[in-house]
Model the fold of this input.
Amino acid sequence: METGIARQGLTLYEKLNILSDAAKYDVACTSSGVSRRGNGRGLGNCTAAGICHSFSSDGRCISLLKVLYTNECIYHCKYCANRADNDVPRATFTPEELCRLTMEFYRRNYIEGLFLSSGIWKSPTHTMEQIYETIRRLREEYGFRGYIHVKAIPGADSELIEKLGYLADRMSINLEFPTAEGLRRLAPNKNRSLILKPMRQIQNGRLASKEEVALYRHAPQFVPAGQSTQMIIGAAGETDYEIMSVSQALYEGFGLKRVFYSAYMQVNEDKELPVLPGGPPLLREHRLYQADWLLRFYGFRAEELLSEKRPNFDIRLDPKANWALGHLDKFPVEVNTAPYEMLLRVPGVGVKSAMRIVRARRHGVIDFAALKRFGVVLKRASWFLLCSGRPMHPLRLEERFLTGLLSEEGRRAPAVDAQRSCRQITLFESGLEQPGMGGLYDAEYRVVL
Done:
């Protein structure tokens, strides 16, 4: 029995409206929205479709058309708005329609690429066939050379994933939950082995492609921008320690470029799902992104940040400050002699500022005025640093005092009150204060969170 509105007779605009809205729950890129009408004098107009942003390796912001191929789905994931038994508007593009949309948006300079995901229509292999045909037409028939990020469908024919990997820039596969138990309970049609199999295939394909390109300069590249994944946070009862341990294993074992964390949003009623009277756990999501940055760029290990005895972050503090307060015996740190790795562990010292310190001290002695010029956040770092054996002010390496100081600073940040200040940015907003930054910008970690 069909659910939702009639599937026949939808205009292309109606399909775009339905399928861009359905894509907002997938956070494997940085989401925001744009709505710009024609003024009768210029060319074109931009309706409030799904425009999201990704970032290239050189830091450029890339605008992407973000849509589902279809929100038809045969699966019964309990947390998903598009699950098979939900009565929601349904729509499906054809490959030709999606190619035309992408090219028309591109010609109007609204996008530089495409982010394409999908519900499971008929079967994983059938869905991947439709996605592959769309991307093949874009590349070969329309000559589209822009950025393409595609969701691979677990359970689909591996040959399709291989062929698609030579057409797409990035591929991603949603892990959904950090634990196999959470996946079994909330996504009964999915299993961990089916998800990890294409992840391994993409990893092996990338390694083989790099070797081939090293031998033959013009050899085609396989998923040159790497692969990523997404985990839903707060739906299955997992701890922060479990989440960070899984992320660490994915980075080390599968060579992932990025793990995205999506705060659970309650769109369905189900006894297996938690009730969230305070709304989505967005502050927890924010802390996980900060911790993820520590894993990837600051040399931390998941087992340093958390443990089975202390499995969750103190959301009042950012994870690095939380670690520092638990290891006060390692402070204060002498700026002019401390190893680079230790400088990275000082709250308020980022990767760039630590590099500047190491370079500058080869030529002279560094003082606190120089640290400020290097970008060090002295409101936080000064409590943990010495310059030539002297502190900036009398040090109080007391956990209670520093917790109050650092958490008070956190309460002044826009992300602390999860119920009032934090909210999920939709794809249909306009007037964002920082276009292209669909989340919270952390000054220390230099990352869109």
In short: The chain is about 35% helix and 10% strand.
